Target: Iron-containing alcohol dehydrogenase
Amino acid sequence: MNSFEFQNPTRILFGAGMADQLGEQVKSGGWKTVLLVYGGGSIKKMGLYDRVISQLQQVGAKIVELPGVEPNPRVTTVRKGIDLCREEGVDLILAVGGGSVLDAAKAVAVGVPYEGDVWDFLIRKAQIQGALPLGTVLTLSATGSEMNGNSVITNWEENLKKAFGSIHAFPKFSILDPTLTYSVPADQTVNGIVDMMSHVFEQYFSSTPDTPLQERLCESILQTVIENGEIALMEPTNYAARANIMLCGTYALNGGMISVGMQNDWATHMIEHEVSAIYDIAHAAGLAILFPNWMKYVYRERIDRFVQFAVRVWQVDPNGKSDEEIALAGIEATRAYFSRIGAPTRLADMGIGEEQLNRMATETVRFGTVGSFKPLNEQDVKAILQMSL
Ligand SMILES: NC(=O)c1ccc[n+]([C@@H]2O[C@H](COP(=O)([O-])OP(=O)(O)OC[C@H]3O[C@@H](n4cnc5c(N)ncnc54)[C@H](O)[C@@H]3O)[C@@H](O)[C@H]2O)c1
Model:
């Protein structure tokens, strides 16, 4: 295990009815002017918008709104939010929605005190030095954005989707009420399941030795998601299943808590960002397609980890099988699960062909090789994309 530092400053309020604690949170923080950030209107359909507004009004907060945050949020929307904060003297940003809304709100938060253009943070031209405080009410279990400092933003003028991570961007508080996810449709529930499993994969497939606790944490999250994901898809209002998935999503990408002292990979995410920067597909759809192919491309680097994955997570019976056969059975079980819950398995399923493969591969390695389990160069990335066609 490597030495590490770990800090996670986000306060979590988890459980049925916790959305009604919002007013109290705002009041106790002493915040007076709130930028309410939300998406295309699902929070209005589910009655959450009214619940949020009435609580903010009750505590006397002035409300400024940034509606219409896109799935795969855009830097143009973030810039609008930054302008609003400056014009209105906002002192709390409140994101109500899924990962896209939370990520956009984080980018607004870090952009307000910065004199240059917020996109500078995404292309690593500037370092984040501070942020406005951020609170969140999560409506979709997937990204872990509710308890980490990451944000993924798309720039359509340049066809780029880039991420930043900063201690300044962790929410001050996040309200996780599983009942708010009852209305999440089946396809988005599937995306969430794939996303959180992918986050664990990026941390679990590591070459750092002697990390048994971290490995078991990863394996238990994967098993819990696998079991409860299928239940939530059959019974969308099953509280236990929705709550378990929600907690898994938060743990899966929690500022690195489950993989402290381990080198992470993240190559597959880097590749996916370039796919969805060009094709605007759901992030998780890209991950479901790419991950089994990444696994097939790299498993020989450390076959023991893939054998452990197959046996512990997918209960592959090792008797009479070679390590190679066990590892491949685990990868196949992953692909079969994604397929069973309705995730896409090929880029062709999303209407994506060979045309932009070179560009995606080049852009993925813009800052050098990606990943650490097996560092991937442009040719490797292209090979994985080709396997995914
Ligand atoms: N910050 C991170 O750590 C991190 C990690 C992974 C991915 N991401 C990014 O997050 C984004 C995806 O976020 P996401 O997967 O949470 O999805 P999302 O926020 O894009 O939402 C997907 C859709 O679900 C709808 N929705 C949300 N809650 C709903 C509800 N309760 N009922 C009905 N519909 C609802 C939204 O309106 C939207 O149309 C991508 O841009 C991805 O790159 C961020």
Residues 39-40, 42, 46, 71-72, 97-101, 103, 139-140, 142-145, 148, 150-152, 180-181, 183-184, 188, 191-192, 195, 253, 283 surround nicotinamide-adenine-dinucleotide (CB under 6 Å). The chain has two domains: 11-180, 185-387. Residues 47 and 360 are 40 Å apart (CA to CA). The chain has 15 helices and eight strands.
